[in-house]
């Protein structure tokens, strides 16, 4: 088998994305993974003996979970002989699992599973100094969800994102406008039924969760403008940033022969995948740089792309990345903005950190199929100055 065989997204599903402390709060992360993987395998009727590996992305190892990907595979009823890998590249994690599957199939594997998952509601606080005792003095509890950057003096990621955005000409008003647009586009897509093939129901102790909890139909520019910046930063607020969310996304990838053997019509072809990195506070513009690089390597220009998904780690991230990709061309910037996150982004949908990268790929593939276009790109920043990007081509 050629190591450069085409790689296809067969199908994908995701859970509803829950609010922090919301409908998925009490669903164990292993069970969330189980339900998501089983739903995908049931939908595709894919033979599990064809699977070469499961890669699972997770940014916060909730509850000190050991070897998560292995536990996910066993809970989902996958073969004991199936190799697994857990990936932590912060927000990039879910997209990295897709990229790893792409590499494996290009190397001869028949098919792989990619899972991105996070339960931020179950992220523990850390109490250091307790294992060996403390004779006297205060014990400090650390909250990982404050999302500090240890490579930038321990400062807030939200603060540095706002500062970088301002330095690149994207201020508070533009960030609020992008956030409001995210909600409005989400509800238009919801009304059109665009998420019906993407979202599966998740069984919880209270019943079933069937819809995203984060989107706000009552959001407005006026309400967003009244919010104060968080963590002492200049622009990022609770309104133009996503929530701390729970959710899972799973995708099935396959090579050409496995696709033919199983007589399946795929969603899209993965044309290319790459990773880039920069300084520890560069994340706000890195998706734009990553998209530019992958397009250049494919002989394409930004104007050639029909569907663009950029993770709204903050509204600033998507806005600055589009501006970066346009490289000073105001007309092109407007065109690209109109093609980016057209069904809403993470500010509306939610951002379960380990899951979002996989969700972006799934959303881009479905929208590409829906639109009749040829090219789609999905990009995400994360991991203290890193970014992942995937270029998709429409299925034949």
Could you explain the architecture of this structure?
The model has no long low-confidence stretch (mean pLDDT 96). This protein is an alpha+beta fold and 396 residues long. 35% of the residues lie in helices and 21% in strands. It has two domains: 7-122 and 244-268, Thiolase/Chalcone synthase (Peroxisomal Thiolase, Chain A, domain 1, 3-Layer(aba) Sandwich); 155-194 and 269-394, Peroxisomal Thiolase, Chain A, domain 1, CATH 3.40.47.10. Helix 1 (29-44) packs across helix 2. The strands form four sheets. Strands 3-2-4-11-1-12-15-14-13 form a nine-stranded mixed sheet, sandwiched between helices. A two-stranded antiparallel sheet has the order 5-6. Residues 7-256 form the Thiolase N-terminal domain. GO terms for molecular function: acetyl-CoA C-acyltransferase activity. The active site is at 91 (acyl-thioester intermediate), 351 (proton acceptor), 381 (proton acceptor). Keywords: Acyltransferase, Transferase.
Break the fold down into its secondary structure elements and pairings:
Blueprint: E1 7-14, H1 29-44, E2 51-57, H2 68-75, E3 84-87, H3 93-106, E4 111-119, E5 125-127, E6 141-143, E7 148-149, E8 155-156, H4 157-167, H5 172-191, E9 202-204, E10 207-209, H6 221-226, E11 246-255, H7 256-261, E12 268-277, H8 286-297, E13 307-310, H9 315-326, H10 330-339, H11 346-349, H12 353-371, E14 375-382, E15 386-394
Parallel strand pairs: 2-3, 2-4, 13-14
Antiparallel strand pairs: 1-11, 1-12, 4-11, 5-6, 7-8, 9-10, 12-15, 14-15
Helix pairs in contact: 1-2, 3-12, 5-9, 8-9, 9-10
